[in-house]
Amino acid sequence: MTTPDGSPWVAVSKTPTTINLHANTSAPSNTTSSDQSIATNDRHLSDLRSWLYATFSWGYETPAASSAVAAPSTQATYAAASSAAHSSATGEVLATPADNGAEYLSPVTIGGQKLDLNFDTGSSDLWVFSTALTSAQIGEHSAYDPSKSSSYQQLDGSTFSLSYGDGSGAAGVVGFDTVDIGGATVTRQAIELATSVSSAFVSDADSDGLVGLAFSTLNSVSPRPQKTFFDNIMSELAQPVFTAALDLDGSGTYEFGTIDSSKFTGDLQFTPVNASSGFWQVDSNRYSIGGKDCDRTNASPAIIDTGTSLLLLDPEVVQAYYADIPSASYDSTVGGYTYDCSESLPEFAVAVGDYMANIPGSGITFAPVSTKTCFGGVQSNSGSDLQIFGDVLLKHHFVVFNGQSEVIGMAAKAE
């Protein structure tokens, strides 16, 4: 999970940059008033605003953005890493969509207890609801109980505290336990047990926590950061990879240690990652609207973030896209671009290195905000120094995260 400036969850002294859903920070000159039906649909609008806050407002100080590191041949680099000696461990879990694809949840077993967690390539903490929370806070969540695990060990003196730009957050203690993701198992994985959570997390009854899958340098545990699940298990995997194949129909998966060729078409195209940022960060110097390409020399780098729902781009790219949609305008009431749901939307694509990752026009809409008005899945990053490629884009592609070669591979998903 990240804010529009590319930040993961943990707050530091610097105030994080967030999107203000009540102010027009990127409106084009033809901004119009809100659709009348939005104003009469207060409950639906409140629900959408709550989700937007939860999506955009989590914050952490942003590492300096820089271009992706160069590699003489990403195909060769990837092939060399994949042929290296590894164990044979693999794991696979379903990625079940919730809230219209706002998040994808997967079953994870911790100390023999099953929880549904959000796999997030934009952060590096594995934290869960725990029985140290009040019954009111736990609500409908599954809560991890360390007393019921014979393998749990407290990490004395270590804590975590995650704060977000809208005031939401979580904090607690840290320990070790056995974590099993679809058969891929780490016997001594750092887990962060929430002893306090904000109301935003309490109200999201679908998710029991997160599995952070960015690089371990972003882990928030104090005084000593801990390794992510992927970093811990990578040397034991048959291949040093995990993959994301997300789908709104519920058939999507995350896999560790293997690349299932039946889940994509054509060849995987690999792009080097600037791992020094802590993110799966890539160059993105081109976009396409309705098949018309546009190169950019001043584009912000992008991060591949399964924990963000939307595609958050530099403002001029977003304005260019919605300029092709007659009914589109920036609506400060909901904090983003909306349009008539009956519109026929143009296809859109952005570059991930040299790979053009497309979204068909039918896949642009994120959610309706009224009976006639829809909220777009392509929105502005409010001029921050990172673009965020979230699930609106990723669900149309098969994505490989190679931790040893530090490359991203992408191909069109198989039908």
From TrEMBL:
Cellular localization per UniProt: Secreted
Q: What is its main location?
A: secreted
CC per GO annotation: extracellular region
One BP annotation, GO: proteolysis
Catalytic residues, chain numbering: D120, D305
Domain Peptidase A1: residue ranges: 104-411
Q: Which UniProt keywords apply?
A: Aspartyl protease, Glycoprotein, Hydrolase, Protease, Secreted, Signal, Zymogen
- Kindly give the Gene3D superfamilies that the UniProt entry links to this protein: Acid Proteases
Q: Which InterPro entries match?
A: Aspartic_peptidase_A1 (IPR001461), Aspartic_peptidase_AS (IPR001969), Aspergillopepsin-like_cat_dom (IPR034163), PEPTIDASE_A1 (IPR033121), Peptidase_aspartic_dom_sf (IPR021109)
Q: Does the keyword Cytoplasm apply?
A: no
One GO molecular function term?
aspartic-type endopeptidase activity
List the Pfam families: Asp (PF00026)
Q: What does this protein do?
A: Secreted aspartic endopeptidase that allows assimilation of proteinaceous substrates. The scissile peptide bond is attacked by a nucleophilic water molecule activated by two aspartic residues in the active site. Shows a broad primary substrate specificity. Favors hydrophobic residues at the P1 and P1' positions.
**Family statement:** Belongs to the peptidase A1 family.
Q: What's this protein's name?
A: Acid protease
Phylogenetic placement of the source organism: Eukaryota, Fungi, Dikarya, Ascomycota, Pezizomycotina
